[in-house]
Amino acid sequence: MSAYDFDLFVIGAGSGGVRAARMSAGYGAKTAVAEEYRIGGTCVIRGCVPKKLFVYASRLGEAIDDAAGFGWSVTDKSFDWSTLVANKDREIDRLSGIYARNLERAGVETIQDRAVLEDRNTVRLVNEDRTVRARTILVATGARPFVPDVPGAEHAITSNEAFHLEALPERLVVVGGGYIAVEFAGLFEGLGVDVTLLYRGPQILRGFDDDLRDGLAEEMRKRGVDVRVNADVAEIAKEDDGSYRIACKDGDRLHTDLVMYATGRVPYTRDLGLEAAGVDLGWNGHVVVDDYSKSSVDNIYAVGDVTDRVNLTPVAIHEGAAFAETVFNDRPTPVDHDAIPTAVFSEPEIGTVGIAEADAREKFRQVDIYKSRFRPMKHTLSGRDEMMLMKLIVDGESGRVLGCHILGPDAAEIVQALAVAIRMGATKADLDATMALHPSAAEELVTMREKWTPPQAEAAE
Length: 461
Prior knowledge:
Layout: E1 6-11, H1 15-26, E2 31-34, H2 41-46, H3 48-66, H4 81-105, E3 109-111, E4 115-117, E5 122-125, E6 130-139, E7 143-145, H5 159-162, E8 171-175, H6 179-190, E9 194-199, H7 210-223, E10 226-229, E11 233-238, E12 244-248, E13 253-256, E14 258-261, E15 265-267, E16 300-302, H8 313-328, E17 342-344, E18 350-354, H9 357-363, E19 367-374, H10 379-382, E20 388-395, E21 401-407, H11 411-423, H12 428-432, H13 444-447, H14 455-460
Parallel strand pairs: 1-2, 1-6, 2-3, 6-16, 8-9, 8-14, 9-10
Antiparallel strand pairs: 4-5, 5-6, 7-15, 11-12, 12-13, 17-18, 18-21, 19-20, 20-21
Helix pairs in contact: 1-8, 3-4, 3-6
């Protein structure tokens, strides 16, 4: 009789954990997965999926406004928040059910409980107050919202609570400048909320290409979002009428009905017993792993946001699959985190793959830039004042495309397709030799011929 109850025990039934569990079970491993909240994880339950549904809702109001330029007349424009929330909840329930059924069909035992490690092979199920033993343990607990230690921060909500508000506020202050902050600022503005975005840095979306950062900030302001940079919150105070007063370190004061913190996420490793099991944790609590997602303990692995490598759902899924191949299919599969496409579902949205211009100039001797800024065809009739940006970063010596950055409608869809070519080593000449699809915005990527010259270089000439 085996000394272990399971070949694999997965802690966390999010995207990465579920993929790893299903594939491992398919390779013959007796597998269990424990989830303390809801099956599906952050992305499905209170992240990417409900966020994207809210983004769709926010864009419809703009579409109604734009319709007049195309001959449509809409006389009764109204929005009901409770209907959106109820329909969103119904869809999330459906998706969570699909995840659960897929685990069951794969032969994975699902345990609705909080699981913590007692040692490298022993897991305690807290609510059931029992222990199980597993030959291999996979930690896939994801991350949780981070809220800075600011006086009055307990009055603020995070993205977790934003999906379940009883009513829309008239005024909202979003604190943060990353993709979660700009996405929620844009979608709430689109739903009719008066939104102010406060970010302590000099420009939103740190780490993205500078042209995208500047372009999005400009477009957000056009739409009515009050984007304030170099604005660091000092204190949040609740007023007698239930509203809030925010004091910034520069002396600025704001009055609002709701405050939302979107200041990043931290790996969810607290009180999981990882230290007791001998697992090394990094500076922010993340599980330190090698290229095969193995921790410092040779039978304990981790995938997804809990490792703080590239915190994206498709990456967690890929890491989970690579883990199953490595451990249970005798096919060691390292995870390649290069050239990962990503999107920011802001208004307008961003799609990006590869490196930013500033990074390219540090790493390559010669960098060529091609970019185009134009008004999307749709807005020639809608009358909306919006500009689209497309930008290619090219290695000037080899001609290889190093990065593609797009701001505008359908940016994510365009970049996903181009990411395949960039990963395969496509050159600027390859793009030039590709026939354009007309009329489309994406045709700009294969018709840009002139290198962009910085204004200071033009002046020097």
